[in-house]
Amino acid sequence: MARRTSQSDQNLDDLLDVLCLVPWWMGPPLIFLVWWLLHDLVPTLATDYWPGRDHELAKPGIQLLTTMSVTFSPVIAGVVGLVWVVALLKKMGRSRRLERQTGIESIRSLSWREFELLLGEAFRRQRYMVEDTGGVADGGVDLILSRRGQVTLVQAKQWKARKVGVKIVRELFGVQISRQAHDAIVVTSGDYTREARQFAASNGVKLVDGPVLERMIADVQRSGRVQPTPKTRSSSTKTATAAANPRCPKCGKPMVQRVAQRGANAGQAFWGCSGYPSCRATRRVG
C-alpha cells in the first residue's frame, strides 16, 4: 500500500523531481530568482500596482503582504536551495550506481529498487525524461519515459531465479493500449519464457533480457567498466534489427510481422501495427 503524504510533502517531492531533471547549474539562478521575486518584485507590485492600493482599508493588507514577502524571502529561497542540494546528491548517487557496474552479475546483485533506479539513469542518458512511479502505477509500470512527445511505459523485473512469463508482458500491453502509450518495454536481468517472447513479438512489446541489458548499460556508461560478451553483442544486433521494422502508415508505431490465420491469405506473412487492436493497419511483406 502506498504511503500517504501531505500536500506540503507532495509539493516538496514535486520540486525535487523537477530539480532532478534540470542541469545542476540551474540551481543557483533558480534560488536567486525565488529570493528576488519575494524580496523585490512582490513588494513593488503590491505597493505600486495593486488594485485599490490607495484605499485606507487596503493599506494594512498590502503592508502585511509586503512585510511577510520580504521577511520570508530568504527562508523560502533557503528551502529551494536545500532541495536543490538534495537533488544534486540524488543525481550523483544515480550516476555512481551506473558507473560502478561491471557486468550482468553486478546488475543482478542489485536490489529491486536499485535495479529500477539503474534503469532510470540509463534511460536518462538516452535523452529520455524519466518519471519514477515506484511501481504503484496501473499494471505495475515502474518508469514512464517521454521523448519528442512520445510516451513509453517500462516495467522492471529483477528476477534472478525464474523467467518472466507471458502474464507480465500481457498486462503491460493492456496498460499500453489503455493509456495509448507509444511503446512498452519489459526489462529483466534474467530471461523470458517462450510464450512471453511470442506474445511480445506479435504485439510489439519490447523485451530486454540480461545480455541486452548489459549492452545497454555499456553503451551509456562513461567509465567503460562493462565489457559485453560476444553473446551480448549478438542479442543487441537482434534488438537493433527489430527496431528497423517499418512504421505504421496510420499511427506511426512500429509494425510487427504476423501470419494470417484465415481468409484468402491464410498462412501468408504480413506487417501489422503494434498498436492493434486500437489500430488495425496492415501492409504487405516485401
UniProtKB/TrEMBL annotation:
Keywords: Endonuclease, Hydrolase, Membrane, Nuclease, Transmembrane, Transmembrane helix. Residues 248-284 form the DNA topoisomerase type IA zn finger domain. Residues 222-246 are annotated as: Disordered. Residues 107-217 form the Restriction endonuclease type IV Mrr domain. One of its GO terms (molecular function) is DNA topoisomerase activity. Residues 228-244 have a biased composition (Low complexity). GO terms for biological process: DNA restriction-modification system; DNA topological change. GO terms for cellular component: chromosome. Pfam families: Mrr_cat, Zn_ribbon_Top1. The keyword Ion transport does not apply. SUPFAM superfamilies: Restriction endonuclease-like, Zinc beta-ribbon. The chain crosses the membrane at residues 15-38, 70-89. This is Restriction endonuclease.
